[in-house]
Structures are given as structure tokens and as C-alpha cells.
Amino acid sequence: MLFLYNIITLLANQLLKLVALFSPKMKLFMDGRKSVFQTLADKIKPSDKTIWFHAASLGEYEQGLPVIEAIKEQFPTHKIVVTFFSPSGYEVRKNNTVADVTVYLPLDTISNAKQFISLVHPEMAFFIKYEYWPNYLNELKKQQIKTYLISGILRENQAFFKWYGGFYRNALKTFDYFFVQNESSKNLLQSIGFNNVKVSGDTRFDRVVSILERDNSLDFIEQFKDNKTTIVIGSSWPKDESLLVNYINQSSDDVKFIIAPHNIKQEQIQELKNAVSKKTILFSEKDNVDLSNSNVFIIDTIGILTKIYSYASIAYVGGGFGNPGVHNILEPATFGVPVVIGPNYSHFAEATALVNMDGCISIQNQTQLNEAFDLLLQNEDERLEKGHICSTFVQMNKGATQTIMHHILG
């Protein structure tokens, strides 16, 4: 099976080169990997001590960040190496300050794995949430490098738990320890013979709790808000926006709206702006303008949404009309903000929990969206109660990083 996997990986590599000729994202995916080994050779000496973290994309990086920061604090003389699989993670966080080296992970071939591990020679390796690359994991095992899964989550429908999953189960044997998010993941691993597992929880809670300790002020948001009730719409997609724009256009001028779309391509931003009948300003147009005169503020940049959530009276988090579903609801929740989302959230434990606890409202259509916003705008007690449920939920679930670090250092 490993032989077949390696053949498929090599064929995929050739196919991706062809696709990259027509896809800008795939071109980033392929071009970004061309200089990885040279970058590693330039930045890591054979005498350096290193620790390696791998994240599939941006969400996994943010999830693992509390552990990366804790490891950096405990091992200050080690170089931290962070790898990404996807451009959506690497391109946004390639200039992060926590890692000494940030690169794409070369495709999972035997030769790439050998060369990568040889150049990085980590003392420990951490895979965040998921991604099980057999050749990298096998090489780590051969080199007797301690390997951990952190904030892992496993589901019954994964290949590991099927009759045909022997090849995938072998990949799991390379891990020294599994730190998983919930009891069901632990039980699934134990059902196939893995007892080196602990329920540590989700490190994303530690990540968002730490946000409260930072300076989240943004002068231009304060000026725009002008002490009015403000709905912050984060990571919205067109399906979200079609409903939201309808609500915005018929809303009272006493309510302000901040929209931070998932996609900030100029043509889509302009299309969104044109659809809004209220006075609207873009982030890119904000300088030398009295922002308080506008009703809608569209954020056509990245990196400031978390801080913007701190100004929200109500948050709408997008993605819930798509697949796999809603984006990160924990960032507004940690600020004690009630959250509204679309219908697709079942793959996200925190969203499911908050909907069941009544801190988050899931809507399926325009009528339900209108009703949810009207309820939260008109009933301050309801708004504050749901916000309290959200913030308490986040605080009650922190501590995963401490559990992981205690085991590693102990």
C-alpha cells in the first residue's frame, strides 16, 4: 500500500505542475516549495537545536500557536520551524515572529521526507489537529524523533477505523503521544489499540483567551462606531452577504455594520459595496474621512478582524452556508459577544456546543436572520445573556496548552 501511495504522490506532483499553469493558488502552492530546501540549509546549521510544528493551513496554525509560544518559552535556545501545507496559511503567516523558519512542507515523497528531516533534524515534531503524512512520519520514527499530535480530532468515518484502513493505522503508530480534543476521539483511538492518548481539549480556547490580554483598540473603529450598537460580520461569503445586505438596507440608522469578507478581491469588494444602499466606506478609503458619518464599514484588508470583534454588540460569523461550514466563532465569543451563524456547523464542536447552550443562534434563511438580529438588537438582556454564555464557555474550556506542556516537560 505504501508503494502505491508513493506512486500516486509522484503522479500528483506532475499533475499539480500542470494545474499550476492555470491556477494562481496552485502556482503559489508549487512555486513556494521550490526553494524550501535551500531556505532550510541557509537558516539551520547542523549544530542548531530545532523543534518542528506542522499546520495544514491558517486555522491550524492559530490553533497550535499557544503551544508554539509555550515551547519557545521553555526551549529558548532551540530554533522553531513552522511548515504549512496550503498557501492560505503560508501566505498570511510567512512573516510571523514566533518561528525562526517558516516554509511550505514539500510533498510527502520518500526523498523529500529524508531531505527535510535531515536539514531540520528536530528534537520534537508536532502535527496540529490532523494531517498524517506517512513518509514524514516514518522518517521521524526511523530517526527516533518524538512526534506528537496536538488538538487532534478523530471521527468514526475516517479511514483509520475502517476494515481497509491498515495502511493509515500504521501511520498513527509513528506518534509517541496523541493529545485530542474530546472523549470520542480518545475512544476511537483506543478502539484500534492506541492507549498513548490524553484528552487535553482544544488549544484554540487558550489562543482566544490570550487575545483578551492584548491591546485590541483600533482608533478608526471607535470613530466609526460612534458609541452606537454595532454588528460585526466576520469571514462572510456571498451566500451570507446576500441575506445580510437585505437586512442592512432596511435597518435603522442607529445600528452600524462592519463587514470583513472572507475574500477581499477588489471586484468582490466593489460588488458588495454597490449592493449596500446605506452610506458605506472601505478600509482602504478611511484616511482623512469622518468615519462616524458612515453606516457600513467594509474591511478590505486582513489581520485585524479579531480586534474588531472587541467592538461588536453582535457578531455574525460567515461560512455557515458553505462546506465544511462556519468559520471561527471563538474569537467573538471570547469577548462576550452573542453570535449568529448559518446552518452548517455540525463539524465544529464549539459551534454545536454554543448553539445547544443558547449562546449562538443558527439561522437558515432571511426570515430567521431578521428575527435573530431583531431579537438581539431590541432585547438588551437577551443580548447580554447570550454574550455571557459565550465568554463563560471559552473560559471553562481553556487549559489544553498547560496539559500538553505538563506531559512533555514531565
Global shape: globular
* Biggest sheet strand line-up: 3-2-1-4-5-6-7
Could you tell me the strand content as a percent range?
15-25%
Largest sheet, strands/sense/barrel: 7 strands, parallel
Determine the structural class based on helices, strands and strand pairing: alpha/beta
User: What is the rounded distance between the termini?
Assistant: 37 Å
- Specify Rg, calculated over alpha carbons: 23 Å
Helix content: 40-55%
Uncertain ranges: none
Number of helices: 19
What integer is the average pLDDT? 95
Number of strands: 14
What can you see in these coordinates?
There is one protein chain. By secondary structure, this protein is of the alpha/beta class. The chain is 47% helix and 17% strand. The chain contains 19 helices and 14 strands. The chain has helices spanning 2-19, 24-31, 36-43, 58-74, 87-93, 110-120, 134-142, 166-172, 183-191, 203-211, 219-225, 238-249, 266-275, 305-309, 330-334, 349-357, 366-378, 380-396, 400-409; strands at 50-55, 79-84, 101-104, 122-128, 146-152, 177-180, 197-199, 229-236, 255-261, 280-282, 296-298, 314-317, 339-341, 360-362. Helix 4 (58-74) packs across helix 5 (87-93).
